[in-house]
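Query structure, 125 tokens:
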């Protein structure tokens, strides 16, 4: 249903360091970079997530979050650990969260700009 998503960040270079670490364990890499935008796609191909520099006190959308699929629990753990090491604020640690769904395994960190990210290993349908 979605072609791509965009998030605002304060500093593209800092965002690149964070998102390279966060998305690497999921097999996602930068596919485009210039002074106005940074794009990521599976294996560094295409643009499915775009980051744009914005100014102001509020960068992240209130109540908005982006959820990423992981191939397994190990990818969730690796991406979460990389995100926290790169400056993410933990919201929900990596692990099972039966309060969300019986088979849910995932996590939620905030990126350094306050964008809410989620990684899910089991699709809940």
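Result returned for the query:
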């Amino acid at each position: 249903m979605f072609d791509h998503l965009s998030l605002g960040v304060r500093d593209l270079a800092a965002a690149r360091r964070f998102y390279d670490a966060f998305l690497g364990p999921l097999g996602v890499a930068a596919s485009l970079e210039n002074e106005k935008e940074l794009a990521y796609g599976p294996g560094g191909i295409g643009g499915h997530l775009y980051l744009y520099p914005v100014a102001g006190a509020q960068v992240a959308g209130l109540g908005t979050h982006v959820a990423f699929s992981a191939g397994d629990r190990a990818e969730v753990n690796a991406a979460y650990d990389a995100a926290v090491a790169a400056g993410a604020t933990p919201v929900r640690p990596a692990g099972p969260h039966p309060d969300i769904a019986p088979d849910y395994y995932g996590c939620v960190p905030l990126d350094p700009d306050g964008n809410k990210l989620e990684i899910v290993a089991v699709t809940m349908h």
